[in-house]
């Protein structure tokens, strides 16, 4: 079930009403109901893969107990490894098996041992597998590192794993945040609920009016990159940057908003990464739940930045490459991660990776300084450049795309494949960037206006934009569902 | 909770009102002219209507239409008389031309080429050959006064029936419920851009759930050459039947068709039986510019220009008018 589908807009009010009117008396009722709703939500896509979620839930529930109860470090480690291997095994089979087989055969063919590929399997990638396996693993890891006491309530734990707003594309929650909230009874809060509705509206706007509207242009340019001049290719990748941002952050906003309506606060996943002043800040603002996951559970256990500069650089390379690989079983994602490592390392070596951690651009001012503008533009260029690899089907395509930009620069006006005026999209993006800049201090309050009339006008314009840019020819699923 | 329900409902109501106003102010939703079934059971537009046709989001195509007193989209009234030269174009939405300003129609373009001629455009979206011949048959008195009649025909679409019957599904669009719904420009706009498709599909699926299940018939979508031949023969038989039933004046009537998409069987039949036709395929093929709109399959301005050109050439060849009236084209 997609957040931008009619089924969800029927499903959500039903869940909301039953949750607050029928099952609100006890925490256990609330959790049991959310669990059922979550499984229905997932089963509407493919009920067979519910067993995977259930298996992952059972394994980590019991491993969590065993890790906690085990007195010796060795035993704890064994239980932890069982949890990790099980989850990584699921991912490995469903997501990476074919990739490894194909890469191995390609390698053998390259070195002169031709082999016919008969081992690849027709496997459907279960939606959300990369997200919920990481979430359950974080639970076992937190218990192992003594950051968390395991829950004895299986329903609460199963709800934590299968919580429908964030089940299929995050944010990848930590038990310390989500499970703690699920252990307490939620009471209806008008303010929280309306904030949730506002976030859903803003998320839908980003998905429908930004991501889906741009999608046909990006698809056309990337699919036919050999026919387009360099100026169009640059336009294509720039628009893809906004598409993927609108798509994923839109999803996250809807997920956070939906949770708020159920009285649960999820962690922020995006904090206006477009306005990052260097690549390090970008990673503090983009897909926060994943980047912090890698920091807590991979980078720090590897030694983080405590060792020598060399070991720190090694650790940075590892987390970026693994992060790239997490996105998909394709060399393009590994290249994307490696490029980000290359961009990040100089910032780290100059000691500027944490300077923008606790502030936003133009912190106490209305407008950014010239220096900040230049920093934002240069970061955007770097990040956008890397997206050529993220979006291309293969390394060959990415390389071909890049080659056309750099070897044969020419300018030509681009025409929308469906005949729409391109200027409309530029105006929309311009307004979107300015608006996001205005609200940059608080990612959870997109409609923070004192005047009720202005707020109402903003809602109207957002809905009108969705109607103006709605495109029924686009595949409306979310990009991050494939990961 | 009460506050939430009350305020949400209020906001929703106000939002819908505001959006309705905005859609009207910016003219995003198209005007839907009223359909009519006249005394001859001819389906056409209710006479003397005026409005705007809008395609796509953000007024991708915006054009004015004018339904004349005969019930067809045209800048002129149809008033055939002896002593004048009139040519009728009969066809579907391609001739009707809601996607263009009514002053920029194919008929008007032909009149620019040949100023002394009057072109009557009997175009109506969805008209097939049965509709066309039934119209001519029903208004025979008028059509007898018209010097030449050109009938647009697409073999694969327009010959599915062998006799004329009122298309009730089209007229169902004029039901009181539909008429009421069409009063909301917001609803019309949302429907035209596809926003309402998912809920409509959802409702249809939900209704089907409660209907008794029918045994699924195995449908083979693959059309064999034999099937194709049979279908072509059937369409040809329909053509013959329609022509016999409603009459067809071979001297005055000409078909307008695209030979690229017309089977040889039909073309040979037309030649053998001395039915004249205008083929616009070569002018479309040799055009270095696109001939259709980007967002739909109708002819764009250039396409209409080419059509007007071939029709004008045909009129010239037929020597319906003296050479002195023909401008350079």
SSE diagram, text form:
The complex is a heterodimer of chains A (483) and B (329).
Chain A: H1 6-21, H2 27-46, H3 50-69, H4 73-110, H5 129-144, H6 154-162, H7 164-167, H8 175-182, H9 190-223, H10 230-261, H11 279-285, H12 288-299, H13 309-327, H14 331-349, H15 370-391, H16 395-407, H17 422-438, H18 452-469
Chain B: H1 2-25, E1 35-37, E2 43-45, E3 49-55, E4 61-67, E5 85-91, H2 93-96, H3 106-113, E6 117-123, H4 129-138, H5 140-145, E7 148-152, H6 155-158, H7 168-171, H8 176-182, H9 185-193, H10 197-210, H11 225-246, E8 253-257, H12 264-272, E9 277-279, H13 281-285, H14 301-318
Parallel strand pairs in B: 5-6, 5-7, 7-8, 8-9
Antiparallel strand pairs in B: 1-2, 3-4
Give the structure's gist in a few sentences.
The complex is a heterodimer of chains A (483) and B (329). Chain A is mostly helical and 483 residues long.
Overall description:
Chain A is mainly α and 483 residues long. Chain A folds into two domains: 6-188, no CATH class; 191-277 and 356-482, no CATH class. Helix content of chain A is 67%, strand content 0%. Chain A contains 18 helices and no strands. Chain A has helices at residues 6-21, 27-46, 50-69, 73-110, 129-144, 154-162, 164-167, 175-182, 190-223, 230-261, 279-285, 288-299, 309-327, 331-349, 370-391, 395-407, 422-438, 452-469. Chain B has 329 residues and is an alpha/beta fold. Chain B has a single domain (35-169, 227-325), classed as Rossmann fold (3-Layer(aba) Sandwich), CATH 3.40.50.1110. Chain B is 44% helix and 14% strand. In chain B, helix 3 packs across helix 14 (301-318) and helix 4 packs parallel to helix 11 (225-246). Classes of the chains: A mainly alpha (483), B alpha/beta (329). At the A-B interface, helix 1, helix 9 and helix 18 of A face helix 1, helix 9 and helix 10 of B.
